[in-house]
Fold each of these.
Amino acid sequence: MSDLIQKCLDAGLSMTTARRAILRALENSEDHPDALMLHDRAKAYDPTIAQATVYRTMRLLEQEGLVEKHDFGNGRARYEEAEKEQHDHLINLSTGEIIEFHDTDLEALKIEIAKRLGFDLKDHRLELYGVPRE
Amino acid sequence: MSDLIQKCLDAGLSMTTARRAILRALENSEDHPDALMLHDRAKAYDPTIAQATVYRTMRLLEQEGLVEKHDFGNGRARYEEAEKEQHDHLINLSTGEIIEFHDTDLEALKIEIAKRLGFDLKDHRLELYGVPRE
DNA sequence: ACCATATTGATAATCGTTCGCAAGTAGGAA
DNA sequence: TTCCTACTTGCGAACGATTATCAATATGGT
């Protein structure tokens, strides 16, 4: 239910061995991989793929709106498939694990605050950093 | 009412010409300068100061908790004096201007969400990106 | 199958930031 | 004050993530 290859074709992108490999690697990723991780994983489908191709492709996918790029502060950008449902991230400081969450009140409040300051909200970034309770 | 030089002395840091220059530059900054901007501004007080010294000093000040480092997504880290009052940032996409705001409900909600997910909130990052209304 | 165009791999370049090192201070002891 | 030692500095090299360059290769419409 997330056929990235099909979405790329729909977007008019030509489909190459390298791209297919990256798209499969991304679809099989449950976490939020960075470019190096994606490169490693994509090698399973295309052993000769180059890092530069991964970077180029991720940039392309981001521009096409098929992928979201995040910066969780560890130097490397992290990627995930663009989802329809809005969500934010909580980073477990003990493990580095990233947890997705959604809160309607929070969404409303962000828009409300921007409005109060005289702005239309175009984008936002919310990351919570925490340690397991107790 | 924000004598950074005194705070540094209180923290046991030795006070050099270069550090004094950086601290003055920072105190006189109403915006959220990056390392390059601080370097330029510090030159007014110490014309021979090096970029590396600015980077080193900002890292030190951050470790001492006297300065906060932000990444607003433009490649360069931005700095501001650590304030007692918690605040978040709204970035005006039309001008690049950064507006600080505080919202009690929002603070509470962030803690509440972390708790609901089973975490104690240790840190967080919220940035709103908007354009002036209308 | 053919060809113009887009894409690739390999490598150099870029940009912010950090490191290594010799020379130069700060600031406490004498 | 003068000395001394550890901390700082300025400079330039090094670094890590990402992007650009470019010749060679694949794509997909014809």
Amino acid sequence: MSKLLAATRILPRRFYGAETTTVARSLIGCVLRHGETSGMIVETEAYLRDGDRASHFWRGITPRTKVIFGPPGHAYVYFVYGMHECFNVVTEPDGVPGAVLIRAIEPLTGLAKMATRRYGSRDGIPSLHALTNGPAKLAEALAITRAHNGCRLDQGALTIRQWRSSEPIEIDITTRIGVSHSEDLPLRYVWKLNPFVSRQAIHRSADPSLF
DNA sequence: CAATAGATCATCT
DNA sequence: GATGATCTATTGC
């Protein structure tokens, strides 16, 4: 076991029972690990109970959203676009819905395995950051599937660990990616200037030279 | 670099 | 029957 992983400790269940926005922000800098593969969380999005039409659960409990209404600290994994799976953590107390989508990680261990899962046995990967800079990309790289839906994150093969960073992490808050409702809510948390985020936290402008 | 098309199916109306 | 918390390849400037 590497020193890197030995220095981490699994987040307790109560960590996830807090407000969804707090959990989303606090997860930045933590380590998501599945077996030999792991990465540092650099980008998250909060999905809320109140006033958030972009969430999967704003209409209430369905077979798919059932786990989101359950106790915190469990995985919510959903399938979209006929081919992609994305990983969330369930937040808020039991009975209160809330979820945080993990949008990007910085690869830490098991790089070769991740590359094989993403690109097969062909040699050479496009780039390191392209390995895990998107919710469906990191799920594939870490082999997180719908089979993990509802599993606990404080025990078993799929865990999230705290990381003692020597320096405080600078976090940018932006609107969320790819949503077509509640687009203006500032619920995306990105590690400022980290090259492994899915998109820069830079605003778009008609004049790119302004940036 | 930016914009767009196509892949492809579970979920809910 | 429409839509989607996406990704990749391709086209266009």
